[in-house]
Design brief:
Blueprint: E1 3-6, H1 12-22, E2 26-29, E3 33-37, E4 47-52, H2 55-59, E5 71-74, H3 77-86, E6 90-93, H4 98-108, E7 115-121, H5 128-134, E8 139-149, E9 163-166, H6 169-177, E10 187-190, H7 193-199, E11 206-209, H8 215-223
Parallel strand pairs: 1-2, 1-9, 4-5, 4-7, 5-6, 7-8, 9-10, 10-11
Antiparallel strand pairs: 3-8
Helix pairs in contact: 6-7
């Protein structure tokens, strides 16, 4: 049975573990990041849309009652599902990355109809704000949470493993910074090319990149099925 380390933060790590086990592998939950909420301005007055680039952002938005009817754009389907569960009524998923998210905003929103509010963490992949501002949108990025990297390698990443899954550049960078033990004997499963680039700062037996930035694609690419 393949032993698969899951490095993403909780609670997503437990959900990923369930999917890994469903594919017949052993899941070792060993987060390299901890999500810490930040105090920030949650008013959406004057905004035509709210953008979430992670489920962490949705969870860090404390009360949707005043924003329930705002248009919500999300980077992917998992974030869209979280937004609907939180109570947002008009949720649109880009089902991809920040580039497909920017394309969705350009295709469905109007720069003249109000600003966009991006509920984000302290580390954001790509330049979503730059893409949208270049198209004429006014974008406010609200820092809703910080991702704190582990300072010591978790025990689960020191034992016998076959695959290490990375869902973010930050997690891959942290693993490399903490010494990447036995990486030359392991497979790195990476959600995107940018994550693979970060993991590639050390030597692996194999690096697998998901064909699209979705967890199902990541698990299929690394575990099969």
């Amino acid at each position: 049975m393949l032993r698969v380390a899951i490095t993403r933060a909780q609670p997503e790590a437990d959900r990923t573990a369930e999917r890994v086990r469903a594919r017949g592998a052993e899941a070792i939950v060993t987060p390299l990041l901890t999500i810490v909420p930040c105090g920030y301005d949650t008013s959406t007055e004057g905004a035509q849309a709210v953008i979430f680039t992670s489920t962490n952002g949705v969870r860090a938005f404390p009360d949707v009652r005043g924003a329930r009817d705002r248009v919500v754009l999300t980077v992917g389907d998992a974030t869209a599902e979280a937004a609907r569960e939180a109570g947002f009524s008009d949720v649109r998923s880009a089902d991809g990355d920040v580039f497909t998210l920017a394309a969705l905003a350009k295709a469905t929103l109007d720069p003249a109809k109000g600003k966009l509010i991006h509920i984000a963490g302290d580390h954001v992949a790509g330049d979503l704000g730059g893409e949208l501002r270049a198209a004429g949108f006014s974008v406010e990025r609200r820092l809703a949470y910080a991702s704190v990297a582990a300072i010591d390698l978790p025990v689960g990443l020191r034992g016998p493993l076959d695959i290490v899954l990375f869902h973010s550049v930050r997690a891959a960078e942290t693993f490399v910074a903490l010494g990447a033990p036995n990486a030359s004997e392991l497979t790195a499963g990476c959600l995107s090319a940018s994550v693979a680039d970060a993991a590639g700062k050390t030597s692996w037996k194999r690096i697998v990149t998901a064909p699209a930035p979705r967890e199902d694609d990541l698990l299929t690419a690394t575990l099969g099925g």
